[in-house]
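Notebook, p. 212. Picked up where the previous page left off. The plan for this session was modest: take the two constructs that came back from the sequencing core last week, fold each one, and keep the raw output in the notebook itself so nobody has to go hunting through shared drives later. Recording the first one now, exactly as returned: residue sequence, then the structure token string.
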Amino acid sequence: MKKISLFLMLSALELNGQIILNQSDFASAGDSVILSTSNATSIDFTTTGSSQVWDFSSLTPSSEYVENFTSIGFSPVQLTFGIFAPSSYQASYFIPDNSIPIDVLNGILPVNLSDVRSYQKSSSSAINKIGFSVKVNGIDVAFKSDSIEKRYQFPMVYQQNFETNGYTFIDLNPAADFKIKQYRYVTSTIDGFGQLILPNGSCEVLRLKRTILEKDSVYQTFFGSGAWFGLPVIQTFEYEWLAMDNLDAMLKIITNNSNGQNQIQSIEFQNNSNVLSLANNGYNESIILYPNPSHDILKLRSDDKLNQLLIIDNNGKIVLESAEDLNDKAINVESLSKGIYTLRVIGNEKIHFTRWIKE
């Protein structure tokens, strides 16, 4: 009876124009998206509710970067997040993370920290943050979260609410006598649905709002005797507009509460359907584009014969053309300027488009 009731509820939501998001709408290991950032400071990110139209068509990109959802493969963190870890800590992929201020820490620690990564576990019911890793003098060190923070809950529907918390203990000993206790208390609400308009077009979305209270403590022995001290509590708000089959948020705005004002910290959005997957454009055979980004050589691989490639710049000009069997052939792109290009691939009597970054 419970399953029947859930089915009827979801069917009613679809009839009312509300999309429903599941695990398959989000990234898995090996996926990548190109994200644009914006320096806008005076946009309306608070208006929400049912049947909304969020018009962000005036957003202007200030920079772009690739977010990779990377498999842990045979990395040194296998024991913590790989197949030998408990089921709840077996990561699906990792992504870069900026929640640990390594630039500040590198100014006071006797070691060098780099490449902070957040490990995520994706399942049919949720996507969870299960821990971190950081390179200490070039060596990966992993820290699992004792309390696991839930990022998304499935199925995702309008007016869904859930609370979660994350606790992670980071100990850099013996490399450095420095420890961090990170506490995060998160309330997530799907507070709106409707149409999102971006510079490149529009799509139907759900709007997710997270309210995050972070209370961290630090132990150090570099200034006076060793002692724990608490950092100021930080309140952060994350707003995400999420669409079907787009791997990541179409638009994400992060703000914090500063002197009673909700100030924008960052704006990121997917620009011009930047998902780096030819399969998502209707192609029924597997096509792999690699490396992406790349500097001098680009390759395509497919079970099908690929007959033609056009590389098109942002002005719509064809800057490189190849008309031969392209499978595993090294295409020299060294002469092209740095930037983002559109690739037009013809194979199996179909035409497909994707994006590529020249470094």
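Okay, moving on. Second construct, recorded in the same format:
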Amino acid sequence: MDDLEPHMSKDTFEYHRGKHHRAYVDNLNKQIDGTERDDMSLDDVVLVTYNKGGPLPAFNNAAQAWNHEFFLESMKPGGGGKASGELLHLIERDFGSFDRFVQEFKSAAATQFGSGWAWLVSTPYN
């Protein structure tokens, strides 16, 4: 994935995919092997193992695997930059400006304990 440079080096991408993501998937598979969760999708494992924030190893590994999959699948050459269209409209409505959103998004990730995952999400009710 040299195409992601200068934002992410090929080595960094491969490290996330080959080491972090692989370890979470392998550990989760060991934890759910032979259980009713063994045939579930990753999304379903995340949902059924969530314990209102309680420390469940299967949830931790499932959530980290999901975060890595979402992150890695979202990467694309030439991606990023300022949002446009309806997304930009909603960002400006809710954050005041795109620059303010970027500040708050970076702050959310930087102050998140652990891996620092931060996602922008929307519901149809907004």
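Notes on construct two before I forget. DSSP finds five helices and no strands in the chain.
Flagging for discussion at group meeting.
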